[in-house]
Every structure is written in structure tokens, then in C-alpha cells.
Write a structure and sequence with these properties.
single chain; 387 residues; mainly beta; six-stranded antiparallel β-sheet; five-stranded antiparallel β-sheet; 28 strands; elongated
């Protein structure tokens, strides 16, 4: 979990005439209200949260050796931050341990504070010095409680407020300058999260010069068997909701990861455009947004974005004129650089002239010239300015 002021969970209905479910949080199994201090009524629902609590993240690592019923020590990724002697939550079991070295704990006592002594695998079970047990009980119509006054544990939580690392760019797996077709594969460098691990990846797509990103899908962070899952095929009808992409379009992608605590990484860098079909015209779809642009507004709304698609890497010059024909601002981009790359391009104009002064309100002409071995072409568009 990532929140430090509430914990939530789901539970199965109790048998009998339950009039109210109650939740609480403790730091072990023998004292279910040790953290919350009381039971919180949530009604007759089967999913809810305990609120108004204060939880500390503590230290978290991962188990890398098996623990059998007769084990006297175990190995983790790192013991950094743990006390020399104290409590360790290993999976659902609570132990008393001492730190042996930088990667090993010596077991002093097993199955304490109401937990059960059991085997643990070496497949990365969570080990922490703090844990929080969410418990539930049902209040019956006669005032009694099921399964007991102390309730039953639902889940044991660790608090993780750290974010996953940023994944790599989801690049289409096609040769540079070649069309991708209507179905193609994206691949990216995976994220990492040393505490909660990667739960899933969210993939977003942008069509051509449309500035809006849409979520394509979410995929598990790991495949069956534990292999990293950092590949996705666009347009594959075998993937739910997918269909081949229409011809004559460019698509760009970005990806972010989510950990099991419910926190997301920053978005990745934007991918190289994938073209379902490369057009013959060197430059197309020249436009700008917002149009007119209100320079009084802050952020993106107070700037004009000039957009266009190139069907080849090209040298591009954008010249802005006022209605008297005077040059106001000029942008130049070399072939293959940002602004001169094959695919959709987005150039931001802040409404200032070459001297750094805000231009007057009125109409302006954007002249966009592109040149490459494919030829040369000029397109003009009007941009309105208000302030």
C-alpha cells in the first residue's frame, strides 16, 4: 500500500444475520486494534477502508533464500536500515531476528505475535521491519461478533511510498525509415522497484499530430513463470481490444509502470513514430493549436503549437510573418533533428518575436518549408493571437 493514513480491503460475507462489519488495524495478529485503537464501523458492505490512522513505511527488502521449518538463518537482498535485533515480517509470518551481516539474518524466534510458522520460498517474498494487519469482524443482530470479538485478519500490508523507475522508450521494432505496417511490436527497457515490484505497464498512443494521448492497454509486469513482460504487439487481434491500425497514419507511444503499492512511474520518453504507410508528399497536415492563442493564459494554453507530419527526415524552416509581411520569428531545424524528423512534429511558439517581446494581437502567417531528397514543399497557415 502507498497511503499512510488509510488501509482498505475486501472480505467474504459471514454466515448469519450480520448487521454491520467493523474494521481495524494492528501491527500483529494478537492485537488487531493496536494501531487504530478501536473498531471502525463500515456498514454491510464487503469492501471498505480504515481511515484516520498514521502508518510508517519502515524498511523493505526481498527474500533470496528458502526458509524451512528448521532454518536458523535466511538471506535477503540487503539488511540495510534494519535494527541489529528486532522484529521482521517475512511474508505473513512475524519473526524475531538479529542482523548477521549485510545480507543475512539469524532467526531468534519464529511464528510470534499470533503468526504461523511456515516455509518461505526464495522467489522474492517481502521482508520488512514494519507490517500492518487489517482485520474484520461482523456484528450480529444479537450484539455478538463473528468470527470472534477479535475479528479475523484480512491482509498484512507494508507501506511503500517510493515510485518505480521510469521505463525505457517503447520503440517500434522496425528499421528506421521503414513503414511498420498495420501490426507491429513495441519493446522497452523494463522499470525496477526494489520494494513493491512492478505490477503492470500502461501503454499510451497518440495519432499523428493529435496532441491527445489515449491508453491502449495495461499489461502485467511479469509473464507466467516470472519472465519480465516488456513487449506488446500493436494491432494484434489476439490482444483484447486490438485491431490493425489504419493505413496512412503515424503513431507514437509512451509507457509508464505501476507498482503493487499503486504508485506510477513518470512517463517514458516518446517513441520514434510508427508509420502504417509512408506517404509521397514530403510534408502534410500543417496546423496549429490553440488557434487563436490567448497569450494571457499560462502554461500550454498560452502558447501556440505548430504541428506537421514529414514523410522523410527534412530540413525545416518555419517563418512567422505579421500581416504587413515583416518577419516576426523564425525557427530552423536540421534534417533528422527534433522538428525535422520523419513523422509528427510539434513546435511551440511562445508568442514572442526575435527580440523577446510579446507580439501584438492580430493575425500572423506561418510559412513552413521542408526540404529533403524527396523534394521541397512550402505550406502556409494563419495563426490568430489575442491578449
Amino acid at each position: 500500500a502507498s497511503r499512510t493514513t488509510e488501509l482498505g480491503g475486501m472480505w467474504n460475507p459471514a454466515t448469519g444475520s450480520v448487521t454491520d462489519y467493523q474494521l481495524s488495524v494492528g501491527d500483529n495478529y494478537t492485537n488487531p486494534t493496536g494501531i487504530k485503537g478501536s473498531w471502525q464501523s463500515v456498514g454491510d458492505v464487503l469492501k471498505s477502508s480504515v481511515t484516520n490512522i498514521s502508518l510508517s513505511p519502515g524498511h523493505v527488502t526481498k527474500l533470496v533464500s528458502r526458509i524451512d521449518v528448521d532454518s536458523v538463518e535466511f538471506e535477503v537482498k540487503s539488511t540495510d536500515g534494519f535494527a541489529d535485533e528486532g522484529i521482521a515480517y517475512v511474508g505473513n509470518e512475524i519473526m524475531r531476528v538479529s542482523k548477521k551481516d549485510s545480507v543475512k539474518f539469524t532467526i531468534l524466534e519464529r511464528g510470534i505475535q499470533g503468526s504461523f510458522k511456515g516455509p518461505h520460498t526464495s522467489w522474492g517474498e517481502v521482508v520488512s521491519d514494519r507490517g500492518y494487519v487489517l482485520s474484520v469482524r461482523g456484528k450480529m443482530s444479537d450484539g455478538s461478533y463473528v468470527p470472534s470479538t477479535g475479528g479475523a485478519p484480512v491482509l498484512i500490508y507494508r507501506i511503500d511510498t517510493s515510485y518505480p523507475s521510469t521505463p525505457g522508450t517503447p520503440e517500434p521494432q522496425v528499421p528506421k525509415g521503414s513503414k511498420a505496417g498495420q501490426t507491429y511490436t513495441l519493446k522497452w527497457d523494463p522499470s525496477s522497484d526494489g520494494e513493491s515490484e512492478i505490477m503492470s505497464y500502461e501503454i499510451q498512443e497518440r495519432t499523428g499530430t493529435n496532441p491527445v494521448w489515449t491508453t491502449v492497454t495495461g499489461i502485467p509486469g511479469y509473464k507466467s513463470g516470472g519472465a519480465i513482460n516488456n513487449i506488446y504487439t500493436i494491432g494484434d487481434v489476439g490482444n483484447p481490444g486490438e485491431s490493425p491500425r489504419p493505413l496512412g497514419q503515424y503513431y507514437t507511444y509512451r509507457v509508464r509502470s505501476w507498482n503493487f503499492a499503486g504508485l506510477a512511474s513518470p512517463w517514458s520518453e516518446i517513441s520514434t513514430p510508427a508509420s502504417t504507410e509512408i506517404g509521397q508528399e514530403l510534408i502534410t497536415k500543417v496546423s496549429s493549436f490553440p488557434n487563436p492563442v490567448d497569450l494571457r493564459k499560462g502554461g500550454a494554453e498560452g502558447r501556440a503549437v505548430i504541428t506537421y507530419e514529414l514523410n522523410d527526415d527534412a530540413e525545416v524552416t518555419i517563418t512567422l510573418y505579421d500581416l504587413l509581411g515583416y518577419v516576426v520569428k523564425e525557427f530552423k531545424f536540421s534534417r533528422g533533428s527534433s522538428g525535422g524528423k520523419m513523422g509528427p512534429n510539434f513546435i511551440t511558439w511562445d508568442g514572442k518575436n526575435e527580440l523577446g517581446n510579446v507580439v501584438s494581437k492580430g493575425g500572423y502567417i506561418a510559412r513552413v518549408k521542408a526540404s529533403s531528397p524527396k523534394g521541397s514543399k512550402v505550406i502556409t497557415r494563419k495563426i490568430g493571437v489575442i491578449h
